[in-house]
Structure formats: structure tokens, C-alpha cells
Amino acid sequence: MSVSGRVSWPPEAPVWTFLWELVDGDSEAIAFRDVRFRGKKVLHKASTPMIRVRYDSGAGPYKDPLSIGNMQGPVKVYEHNQGGFRHLTVESYHRIGRYHLINRWFFRTDGHILPQMHSAGLQHPSTHQHHVYWRFDFDIEGAANNLALAHLHATSDWGYGPGWLPLRQETWQVTASADAWSVINKQSGAGYVINRGPFDRPSDAFEPADMYVVAYHGPEDLKGRLGTAHAAGIFAHINNEDIDGKDLVFWYIAHLHHHYHGPEFEWHACGPLLWAHRL
Ligand SMILES: [Cu+2]
After folding, report:
1. Ligand 1: distance of its center to the CA of 121 in Å?
2. Domain span holding position 259
């Protein structure tokens, strides 16, 4: 089973065009395909293939897939205004055990993309950490000639502005070493700057990475088959392959620390900020 829709928005003068779909079997939550901003390709696909949860009590860990099977109601696509900007929102609402999850994506008229995972409810009365994995298969102005960069706490200039270090090989990083990342087209310099979201906490031993960047290989797109409750399995795709000027995939991981302080129903949000740059 699958649900899908084609978006061209705003209708009177479209800046965003893409296909969204949610496909059962190895579900990767809502997947956005062939995403174009002002006619320029920016993403081949963006999706959320995995959420892993670790409980301090020792229950679990769990791997929570977002699928049509646990979705409540249809995928909603609607416009709203916030902070003086028009957004197109695409979201789905899921129930897993006692958990409530909202997978919500904002597409702003100026090119910003804000994916957010909201969760509420308690599966076990215990402090726990959610790790949410977003997979961004960037194709900035096409698959070729893309480059990932990390913004280091440094003033050195490697040719892309102070502190911006080109990542020439597959790698993973934590926020302690870089406070932002970027994926650009090498020729035009256009692309996205990726910042950690305001609620995204530090990584831990259960998921040490804040990001991974790997070369694109079709067979490595495992969708919901990726990883287990115990390990994300993305390290297996990192083997020092050259990614300078290649087709690459950027993984962003949000760590949501949920402190148990008695029965409650509070919504918690996490997710990165993707800022359009020269697009
Ligand atoms: Cu929680």
C-alpha cells in the first residue's frame, strides 16, 4: 500500500515542486522526491528511515518505524503563515504503543526546509533518548559535482570562507567539532547550510554521531531496512570513499532527551534547520 501526492506551491506562482509518498514495507516515513526550489533540483530524496529509542531503565532499545500501518488519518498538506513567511506543511500523525509522533516538514517560500519530529506520551516510566535519523539525498543542481563542508570552530580558510572545511572523504562528526554543515554545488556555490535544531541534544554512546556523509550508492538506500534497535548501521557505509565533487548523502541525527518526571503528556520536538544558500 502507498499514498502519495504531487506538490506545486504556492499554486499561483510555484517555488516548490516535489512528489511526497509514504510506502508500506521498509517504510522510511514520508519521502520527498525530486525536490525543486525555483526550478532548481535540490534533493533527489529526503526521508526519515529510522528512529531508535534507548531507555535508562533497560527496557528496549526500540526501533520505531513510521508507516501507513501506524498512521492516524491521512497525510496532511496545508499552508500556514508564521514569522512573516508562508510555509507549506506536510505532516503525518502516528501512534506506536503509547507513543504519539508527528512527522512534520515545513517548506518556506525563501527555500528553507524545516523537518521536525514531535513526540509525546510515555512507553515506559523512565528517562529515555530518542534518536531520529533524517536522510538527505542531496542533488544540488544535479547529482554531480556536489560537496559537503563542515563549519569548524576555526578561522582558517580552505577556499570556502573562514572555518568551512571541505569533507573530501566519507566521514561522521559530532557538534563538538563542527557547529554547522553545508552541501553545495561546487560550480555555483549554491546549496544548503544545515544547523542543529534548538532542541537537539548532544550525542551519546548509543548514537555517537550528529551527522554522517557518504557517497550515494543505490544499494545503500535501505529505507526502513536500515539498522536495528541496537545499531544504526550507517558506519558500515563509511569506507573512506572520495566524495569531493560526487553524488552524496547527508545523514542528520537529532538526539531528543526525554526526562521522566512522573506521568505527563508533553510534546517534544527535534530536527535540523536547512537554510537555502544562493539558490
Ligand atoms: Cu520520549
Report:
1. 7
2. 2-277
Phi then psi for 17, rounded to 5 degrees? -135, 135
Q: How far is the CA of 174 from the centre of ligand 1 (A)?
A: 22
The enclosing domain of 28 has a CATH number of 2.70.98.20
Q: What's the CA-to-centroid distance between 24 and ligand 1, angstroms?
A: 24
- Residue 279 Cα to ligand 1 midpoint, Å, equals 36
pLDDT digit string, tens, across residues 187-236: 999 999 999 999 999 999 999 999 999 999 999 999 999 999 999 999 99
Overall number of domains in the chain: 1
Task: Report yes or no: 106 and 88 within 8 Å, Cβ to Cβ.
Answer: yes
Distance 266 CA to ligand 1 centre (A): 9
* Residues, beta carbon < 5 Å, ion ligand 1: 258
Q: Residues 26, 40, 279, 12: is their CA dihedral positive or negative?
A: negative
If pLDDT is split at 50, 70 and 90, which confidence band does 41 have? very high
**What letter represents residue 226's amino acid?**
L
pLDDT tens for each residue of 52-89: 999 999 999 999 999 999 999 999 999 999 889 999 99
- How many Å from the N-terminal Cα to the C-terminal Cα in the chain? 35
